[in-house]
Amino acid sequence: MSSNKKYWKSVEELNETSSIVETHSQKEFVEEIPTDEFLGNKETLETSTTSRRDFLKYVGFSTAAASLAACEGPVMKSIPYVVQPERIVPGVANYYATTMADGFDFSSVLVKTREGRPIKIEQNTMGTTGANARVHASVLSLYDNKRLQRPLANGEVTSWEQFDREVKEKLNNVDGEIVLLTQTFASPSTAKLINEFSEKFGNVRHVVYDTVSEDHMLDAFENRYGRRALPSYEFSTAEVIVSIGADFLGDWAGGGHDAGYAKGRIPENGKMSRHVQFESNFSLTGANADRRITLTLSQQKAAIAALHGYVTGGASTSNLPAHIDDALIKAARQLREAGSKAVVVTGIPDVEAQSLALSINEALGSTVMNTATPRMLRQGSTAAVRQLVADMQAGQVGAILIAGVNPVYSLPFADEFVEGLAKVDLKVTFSMKNDETALLSNYVAATPHYLESWGDVEFTTQKFGLMQPTIRPLFDTSQFQDVLLRWTDKNISYADYLKQTWEGSMGSSSWVDALHDGVFEGTSPVSAQVGADQVTSASTSFDESAAVRNLSAAQGEGLELELYTSVAMGAGNQANNPWLQELPDPITRASWDNYLKISRADAEALGLENEHVSNGALNGNYVNLKVGDTVLEKVPVFIQPGQARGVVSLALGYGKREGIQREMQVGVNAYPLYKDFRAHQNVIIEKAAGVHEFACLQLHTTLMGRNDIIKETTLEIFNTKDVHVWNEMPQVSLNHVETPVTSPDVDLWDGFDRSVGHHFKMSIDLNACTGCGACVIACHAENNVPVVGKEEVRKYRDMHWLRIDRYYSSEETFEQDVEKKENMSGLGDSLSQFGEMEMASDNPQVVFQPMLCQHCNHAPCETVCPVAATMHGRQGQNQMIYNRCVGTRYCANNCPYKVRRFNWFLYNKNEEFDYNMNNDLGRMVLNPDVTVRSRGVMEKCSFCIQRTQKTILDAKREGRAIEDGEFQTACSAACDKGAIVFGDVNDEASKIAALSEDERMYHALEYIGTKPNVMYQTKVRNTSEA
Amino acid sequence: MKKVKYRHSAARIVFFSVSLFFSFNTLLLAQEPDDSPLSEDEADRQETVQGPQESNVEAEVSGGDEAAGKELFNTLCAACHKLDGNSIGPPLRGVGDRRETEWLHSWIKNSQALIAEGDEQAVAIYNEYNQVAMPPFPQLSDSDIDNILAYVNAPKAVPQEKQPGAEAAGAGAQGGGGISTDILLGILAFVLLMLLVILYLVNKTLRRFAAASGVELPVKEKRGKPIWKSFVENQFLVIVTSVVLVLVGSYFAYGWMMQVGVDQGYQPIQPIHFSHRIHAGDNQIECKFCHSSARVSKTSGIPSLNVCMNCHKSISEVAEGTATEEYSKEFYDGEIAKLYDAVGWDVSQQAYTGETEPVKWIRIHNLPDFAYFNHSQHVEVGGIACQTCHGPVQEMEIMYQNAPLTMGWCISCHRETNVRTAGNEYYEKVHEELSRKYEVEELTVAQMGGIECAKCHY
C-alpha cells in the first residue's frame, strides 16, 4: 500500500489557507535574489548587442580556436653567438679553478660552466680545504634574485661614476677617522691595497670582523707564537684525537678538517684513529666519535684543565664527576701513548683554555698540529670591533666602509652599532644584498659574487688560492677591491693588481699555472694580517698554573646555552639559498629552521614537549630565552637525544629579515645572545605560548637493533674475529638447509650475464662518511632536484634523491641494541621492550647512512610498474623514464629503501613554489643535460647516468679505454672524504672491484634478495680504551 | 610561418600536372625566336667582342690572353680582390688605366719590397687598405701577369638582356607564352560555358515541343522498397558495417594522433634566406666546416656569425650563375647584406662597426626536452653522414626537417645500424665479449645497449 504521508516543511503548512504558504509556493527563493545588484545597470544591459546566443558562439569559437592553435607546435628560436668565444662550444662544459672566500667559508673549487654560466661546484682535488655543503650550494647564490643589481646612493639607483665621484669627494673632506670594517679576506693583495688606501687618505683604520668569532683561539695562538693565525691540523696523521667541545668536522677554526679526519678513520692494517669527544651540544663531530662524553659548558673548562694535568703529569685528580674524570684519564693515557700522533683540540671560547690546548699539544710533541705554516682564514678581532663601536658612539668616526659583513644583523650589540652609525657622516656598504646594514647606509656598493670576482686567498702561510671570474658580472656590480683601486686613483683593474702583487712570489708556479690549478705554494708578498697591531693584547705571558686554576674553578650556574653554526647555514651568509634551507641538519634532520636543542631531562623539568601530530610531522613548544638583559622570544624547542643535561644550544645564522625572500625568512636570530662574542652563555628559559611546526625528514630515530640496515662492529672484533661474526651473510632455508641469500639457488629470478661491458656499482664507507651533506647538495645541483618548501617537507614530500639517514642507538651502543633485541622472548617482552627501543638513549651512538636508489639487480620497483617506466639497464642502473611514467606510485610503495620521490606538484614556473626554479635567474643553474621533471611523475637517483654516458662518449671519441676513477657520480665527486666510491666493477683493476670484495662490504637489507648495486662498508668503531 | 607537408598531396599532383602541361605549351611558343642559350665560353667571347674599342686595343698591346687571365685571377686574386667593389684589397677592374703596367708587375711580384723601397703609390695603397700586406707572387711570369691584367682591364660586360635586340626578342617570347596561357584558359572556359547553356536550351526547347505535340515522356516508376530501408532492417549487415566503420575510423584516428608533434617537412621561413644548396651543394662546403661543434658536442651548433664572415668578408655578392629562376642575384645579395647588418660589417669601410644584432633563427629540429641526443656520438664516433638524418641538405634551397624524429625512427635505425668498432680501443673488450655472446661479427647499436630507455631519457 502506497503511503499517503505528507511532509511539512513548517507548521504553517497545516493551515491550508495560509497566505505565507501561498506566496512561498510560487517563489523559488524565499528572498528575492539581488540580480540587479550584480547585473548592474539595466539600461546598459538592454542596449547591449551581445545576446546569450552570441555569447555561446564566442565561447564555442574561442575554444575551437584555442584547441586548433594548440595543435601547432610552438616556434622555437635559436640564437647563435655573433662572435663565438674561442673556448666555448655550445653543449660542452668548461671547468675553471677558483676559490670561494666569503669570510666564513674558504675553499678551493672547480666550477663547471655551460655556455658561459656556472652550473655546479666540484671539488678541487689539488686544494687543501675541501668544499662543504655550503660551498657546493654557493653557485645558486650567484643566481639569487634578491641580489643588488646596481649601486645605490641614499636608497636611489645611481651610476658608478657618480657613486665614485660623490664618495671620493666625501672621503677627501671627511671629518674624523675613516674606518674599513671588513670580513676576513685572507688576501695578501687586498691587504696591500688597503695599506695603499690608508696611505692615500691617512687616518684610516682597518677593523676585521668575523661574524662568528675565533678570537680566543687567535689570541691564544698570537700570545704563544706571535702571529695572529690559527694552527693547521692534519687529522689524517692522527692516531688519537681528543676534542673538548670542538666541532672540528663542522666550522671550527675555519672548517675543512673533515677530509683529513676521514682518511684516518678507515681501518687499514688493523689500525684506525681513536676519537674521543667531550661535548655539550650534539655536534656532527660528536656523532662521529668513537666515544662521546656529555658534559656541561663549565665542565668543559674544568676538563681541559684536568686533561692538561693528566697529560703533563701535573695533576692526578679533578673535581669533575667520576665518569668524566675516568674518561679523561683514559684519554690522557691514550694521548701519551700516541705521543706525536696525538692531538687535543678545543672549542671553548676562552683564551686560557685555548692556550692550554696548545700547551698539551706541545707537551705531546704533536705533529698533527702545525704552527709553522698556520691557517690565515680568520683574522677578526673582537676588541677592535668593540673599540670601533665605542669610537663611533663618541662621534670620532667620519666615514665607515663596511665590506662583506652585516653588523646590524650579526653584532651582539647591534643596537649600539646602529646608534654609533647614526653619528657617522659617510656610511658605505659593500654588499650583495640590500641587507640590514645596507639599509642604514648612505651608499651601497653592489658587489659581485665570488664567481664573478678576482682574488687571492692565503689558506696557510704557505698555501694560496686564486679566485677568478667564471662568468661576466650578471649585474652592474663592482668588487670592493676595484672600487678601492678607483678611489686611490690607480688606473688599474684588480686582476692586473693581483698579477703585480704576485710577481715573483709564486714559488715554482707561473701565473697561468696558478690560475689553471686555482692553488699554488709560495710566500706572501705582503702580510695579510691587518689590524693586529692595533689591539693591545690582554695577556702577554701565559701563566699555565693560573689558567689551570681559573678553568678548574669554572662553575656553571643554572642552564647554559651554546651557540653553534649549523651545517646548512653556517654564519648565515647564504640564508637566501633554498638548497641550503632545505638541507636537513645531519643530527636533528630538521630543515628550514633553527631551534633550541635541549636534553629530554631538561625538557621534562621545564614542561616542554615535542609531539608527533596525526600526519606524522613534529610539533614543539616555544620558549623565551633570556641572556643577561636580552630576551629572544618564541624559540622553538627540539628535544635532542645526546644533548648534555643543563645545556641548551641554538644555531646562529638564521632569522635574517632583509634582502631575503619571504619563504626564506625562517628561524630566529641568535646573534643578540652572542654576548662578548662567546658561544657559551648562561641562559634563563621560560615556556612561551604556541606550538611550532617543524619540517623534519626523519622522525624515526633509532635502529631498533636491525643490523641488516647498518652493520657495525668494533676495531677489536674486526681485527680478531672471523668475518662471519661481524658481517654475517643472511641465510634462508632451502629444503631445510641454510643457504646464503645471495646463492642463485634461492633466487626466484633468472640471472643476467653482467660481466660484459660496464657494470656500475657504488660503495659507501660508513667509517669515512661524516654526514656533512656535501653530496646531498651536489646531487641537487647536478640533477635539477627541486626545492619543495617547508610545508611540503613537513609532509615528507621532499625530493632529495640522496638523503643521509641518521640512526641513534637506544642503548648506550648499537651492540647493546642488538643484544637486547636478540634476548627478547615472548610477547610480553617484545611489547614492552620494542617500545623502549624506539626511544633513543640519553647519549646514543650515531651512525650516518647515505641512502639513495640502490639500483637493485632484482629491483622490486621494476616488476610492479604497469607502464614499464622503470627498468634495468645492462650497466646496472635502475632506469627511471619520466616520459613514460603515469604516476601510479606502485614503485615507491614497493621500494624497500624508500628512495623514490614523487612530484606531487609542478615545482618549476609555479608561484606556489617560489624558489630558484620559479625565476629566470634561478633557472640558470639548471643542468641542461638533465630533464626538469613535471608534475605527476616519479623520480629518483639515476646513478648520474648523464655523467657516465659522457665519460663513455669522451672515451669513444678519443678511441681509448676508460681508466679507473673516470666514472664519477655527483655525490662521489663531491665526497672529499672518499666515503663514496663509484666505478665499473667489471674493470678488475678498479678500486670499486676491490671494495666489492672487501670483508667489510654488505648490502642494505640483503636478506630480501634485491641484489643492490650500492654497497656499504661496515662501520668499525675504535672502542679500545687503552 | 610556412608549414609544408612533405608528402605530395593529390591537389599538388594535379596542380603540378596542369602547370606542366601549360609550361610545355610555353616552351613550344618560346622555341620560335632564335634565342639559343650561349655557352659560357661563347658568352665570354661575346663580352670581349662587344666591349668598347680602347680596351680591345690595350689588350692587344699587352698581348694578354683574357681566358687564361680569368683562370689565374679566380685562383690567385679573387680571395681578396673583386673586379668591382671593395674587398680586402681594392677593386681591380680597369686597374691598367689607373696604374702603369710596369709598376703593377713589380707590385704583384713583391708588394712588400715595393713598400719597403718607399714607393709613394705603394705606401699610399698599403695604408689605405688597413696595412694588410698582399702576398708576393714570384711564381707568376710576366705573361701571366699580362693575362691577368688583360682580364681585369676588360670593361664590365653589359648584361645580355639589356641589349635592345635581345631584350625585345626575349620579352616577346616571354610575354607571348604568358598571354597565350591565359587566353587559352579563358577560351576553354567560355566554350564550356557555352556548351552548357546550349545543352540546357536544347533540352528545354525539346520538352516544350514534346508538350506541344502531346508526346508523353516516360516517368520513372518508384520501386517497392528503398535500398537503405532494407539495409536498416538487416541487422547483421548493420553490425558488420558499424564494426568495419569503427575499425577504419580508429585506424585513421590513430594515424592522425600519431602524427601530432611530428613535424616532418617543417620548413619555416628564416630571417636570413640561407641556402644550403649554394653552400653545401654548389660550393661543396663540408657540413662540419661550419657546424663544427657536431664533432665534439651534443649540439651541431648553429654557426656563429663570425664563421660566416670568414668567407663573406670577401664574398659580398653572389656570382651571376648562382641566381635561379626563383631567386635573383639581387635577392641573394640582399640576404648577404642582412648578414652584414647582423654582424655589423661596413662594406664600404671594410671594417666592423661593433653594432651587432644576433640573428634569431627558427629552430627546425626540435627534440623534446626529455630526449637526449648527442651529435658527436653519431657523427664522430658512429661516422654517420649528416644526410642520413637531415636528408639531401645539399639540395635544399630552404632547409626543412627531413626525418620524422620519432622514437620509432631512432629505434629502428639503432636496430639496423652496426657500431663502428674498428680501430676504436674503447670497443675492443666489449666487442670481443659481445660478439662471442651473440655469435656475430658486427654488433648493432641495439646489441650494444643502444635501445635502453635511459640511454636517451634522463
Record keyword descriptors for this entry.
heterodimer, A: 1026 residues, alpha/beta, 7-stranded mixed β-sheet, 6-stranded mixed barrel, 35 helices, 43 strands, 21% strand, globular, B: 458 residues, mainly alpha, two-stranded antiparallel ribbon, 3 strands, 1% strand, flat, disordered N terminus
Task: Briefly summarize what is shown.
The complex is a heterodimer of chains A (1026) and B (458). With 1026 residues, chain A is an alpha/beta fold. Chain A has 35 helices and 43 strands.
Order of helices and strands of chain B: HHHHHHHHHHHHHHHHEEEHHHH
Radius of gyration of chain A: 32 Å
Helix content of chain B: 40-55%
Give the termini separation of chain B. 32 Å
- Helix-and-strand structural type of chain B: mainly alpha
- Uncertain residue ranges of chain B: 1-8, 23-62, 161-177
Number of E-type strands of chain B:
3
Query: Span between N and C termini of chain A?
Result: 97 Å
Strand content of chain A: 15-25%
- Please state the structural category of chain A: alpha/beta
Total beta-strand segments of chain A: 43
| Assembly context of the chains | heterodimer
What fraction strand of chain B? under 5%
Gyration radius of chain B, in Å? 34 Å
- Report helical residue fraction of chain A: 25-40%
Q: Overall 3D geometry of chain A?
A: globular
Task: State the major sheet of chain A.
Answer: 7 strands, mixed
Biggest sheet record of chain B = 2 strands, antiparallel
